[in-house]
Batch of 3 targets.
Target 1
Amino acid sequence: EVVLRLDGVAKAFPNGVTALDGLDMEVRAGEFLSLLGPSGCGKSTALRLIAGLSEPTGGRIEGRPAGGAPSIGFVFQEPTLMPWATVFGNVHLPLRLQGIGRRQAEAAIMEALEMVGLGAFRDAYPRELSGGMKMRVSIARALVTKPALLLMDEPFAALDEITRFKLNNDLLAVWRQLKCTVVFVTHSVFESVFLSTRILVFRARPGRVAAEIGIDPALPRD
Ligand code: ADP
Ligand code: ADP
């Protein structure tokens, strides 16, 4: 049931900043886990360590998928789309990197786009899309490989409140449909309570888990 475990994990950067020290946490299969805390408490650092984008300077991480991709999907705060490619082309990228051509990837790409409500925008370019739509493309791109673990780093922080609320609702629907494990970084108490089955509250300097909140997944949230 535990898919990933961090044991006394530390991350000290060369500039002397200790972002994390003695971080103990686990990720359980199928849960929607939020890492909640103020800016600078080490949430993104923890997520990057989980993704294998960074190495700990102390402690141990067990269960991290070798090589990172494609069993992990990562959604950054910035949608980071390729401006010269269409929506379809952007979502194709992770499959293209695996050597899967457009034709062969089409069904998976369209399925991911339908999931985020953008099926009709397959031929649009990023500049034609709103901020919320760009974020939807970014989520579709993370989902197109059907990752077991979806990591999201404050994905909606730059969006207006109404768009953010819509995306929260749609993300919940996607998570229920895919039954994947999500680790979601946020500084919004509302967002974490609305989305999660479990919340780890981080405290800063150096970052570690100060409290854990479990939310009955059977309770209606929307
Ligand atoms: P959060 O995601 O909770 O806002 P971060 O994990 O981004 O926090 O950062 C935690 C602390 O580590 C901050 O003080 C930040 O400035 C510092 N930090 C993060 N990444 C680096 C880095 N690559 N080099 C130096 N300091 C960093
Ligand atoms: P590694 O563990 O491989 O050394 P890091 O976790 O140090 O990798 O990540 C380096 C990344 O963090 C770089 O992309 C850099 O731009 C970014 N970064 C550098 N300084 C900071 C900072 N103070 N806060 C947040 N991110 C930072």
Note: Residues 161-178 form the longest helix (18 residues).
Target 2
Amino acid sequence: VEEARGDKPLAGRTIVVTAGGTREPLDPVRYLGNRSSGKQGSAVARALVDAGARVRFVAAHLSQPAPEGVELTEASTAVELQAAVREAARGADGLVMAAAVADFRPAAYNGSKIKKTDDGGAPAIELVRNPDILADLVAERRDRADLPGLIVGFAAETGDETSSVEEYGRAKLARKGCEVLVVNEVGEDKGFGRDENAATLLFRDDAPGGPREPEHVAGSKDDVARKIADVMAGALNR
Ligand code: CTP
Ligand code: CA
């Protein structure tokens, strides 16, 4: 059995990481998607592998190849991603939900390409809610011992007149019930598809060890990823 050592603090641990962005098909050629590149999730997977963890990597439409040394599963839609995460999470020590999961999907899939009509009109697209993968897993683990005790969520937030990025993050952390929430500030010039990132890690108040101050990290996506790996190693080895 491998043991946690200084340079491999996650040896012997299994961690599930999701990355990328889901696509929700409308017809055979069109989908509703988002701008996630999967770079931050891939960087987290790499940092966890470097720290000695066994990484089950669930990827949705990455803009670059998956990192080396992970066990790769691919998923396209939110429903597929949920099935893959459920499977991978069994017996895992940790889960990092870095994927951008579509909140809604088209209510109906058109088996053939949607065509324009001669009257100049446009179709309305009806949407239905997707499952909340993270919240569902947090709820499910209340009566299952084989699901990860350490769940890390991500939130891409923009501040507005009523609340700051961190205030929105706090509310989301409470709502989701995960142990850690990594809050990114996004906008036209930061976040998606970029190599640089700034994030605030928020910790659940009733986590083991008591309340903990937020941690701020700025730098490359690899810097943010290493911080997340450090925090996870600390939590799993305490
Ligand atoms: N998430 C998820 N399943 C969903 C939507 C989100 O598991 N259907 C996860 C994301 O992977 C992320 C976290 O939940 O780790 C927060 O995602 P975010 O979109 O910021 O939160 P939402 O609860 O969807 O809230 P919002 O209305 O702000 O989009
Ligand atoms: Ca969302």
Note: The chain has five helices and twelve strands.
Target 3
Amino acid sequence: SISTETSVDRKVRVTYEEVGGLRREVKAMREIVELPLKHPELFVRLGIEPHSGILLYGPPGCGKTLLAKVMASESEANMFPINGPEIMNKYYGETEAKLRDIFKEAKDNSPSIIFIDEIDAIAPKREEAYGDVEKRVVAQLLALMDGLNDRGNVIVLGATNRPDSVDPALRRPGRFDREFEISVPNEDERFEILEIHTRSMPISDDVDLKDLSSELHGYTGADIKSLCREAALKSIRRYLPEIDLETEKIPSEVLQSMQIKLIDFYD
Ligand code: ATP
């Protein structure tokens, strides 16, 4: 894409093919995120305002950040990530100004997705450590979100592991008024995620990803990704004794013969 002096390119490139499981969530988000970002004119014609905020919740490593990136990528939108704890601490005293800057930049470079990870750090429930600073920051965030409405070319995705710790004021109509639970994958979903993360790996015939997925109960997407990576590293260790590392380049027939075997997926 073309980048001029006044426009930023915050594009990410991740496709729907890189998301395992989460089919219902992706389908729904295509309607409420991709559609208004790509075709705001549809919503203008129908006289409705698109959702401006969507809350993704669920345990770590199950794809909240991945989904935000995919939605931005597939909607051809710029992505503006905000890390909740970081903006509260690193910019202490300037958090509101920083939020205003990011929202302005997102508007100036729309279509955009603002992704607020660990949003509970910005907008905790009132009972939880809720001082004047937090009150001002939440008020600022809400004001910025209220100011987004009308055109739908900026959508805010918030993510949290602790939905019950988010200020309920955030979950009112016109704010984060759609929610999706992004939960730990089931067996079929684990299989899809295994396929995705082994796609570019030379996997030996003795590896049956279906069998493997049945044994990974409780593994998140992030766990599966790291399992695949570990397996690849273990396979290298197996081959190491046969490889002459002094040669300038490992011969291609040696590389070609390398495979990740079933044992590599186990301790
Ligand atoms: P956190 O709360 O820690 O931010 P998260 O839910 O945002 O967790 P991600 O950061 O999206 O999790 O996941 C980490 C990595 O794990 C992703 O980059 C991706 O490679 C892999 N992953 C997680 N879920 C999936 C999935 N459903 N399909 C494919 N890969 C996944």
Note: The two ends are 45 Å apart (CA to CA).
